[in-house]
Structure formats: C-alpha cells, structure tokens
Fold this sequence. Notes:
The chain is an alpha+beta fold and 71 residues long. The chain contains two helices and three strands. It has helices spanning 13-24, 49-63; strands at 7-10, 33-38, 41-44. A three-stranded antiparallel beta sheet has the order 1-3-2, with helices on one face. The termini are far apart.
Amino acid sequence: VNVSKGSLLKCDPAVKQYLVHLDETLAIGERFILNNLDEQHLFVQTSAVPKIKEKLQELIDKISYDASQIK
C-alpha cells in the first residue's frame, strides 16, 4: 500500500492539459502530479499548489487583456 499526502485539484480539461504540460517540462522545478485521476481531477503535491496557482495566473494574464487600456 502506497500512501501519499497531497491535494486534489478539479479543473476543466484544458487547464488540466496545461498542468500536465507544466509537470512534464518541470516548469516549476519538479514533477508535482502524483496521480492523474480522470479528465477533471489531478492529485498533486500540496507544496506545489502555490506555484501552480502562480503559473495559472501568469497564463491568464498572458491571454487576457484590459479593455480599459484600449483607446
């Protein structure tokens, strides 16, 4: 029996694919996915959650724009 302490993430399939990409490319410095459960759930290292949130916010900032700054 293997026991791992971690966090359960629920996300849409597109975000999940991005997280799998981050994990495979070691974008946060380590592999963080402990178990790929289904199309909407990942079990990840709890210590990686703040870094995951930071990377997701960077992605959101990159693909979003502020309409008030358009002239």
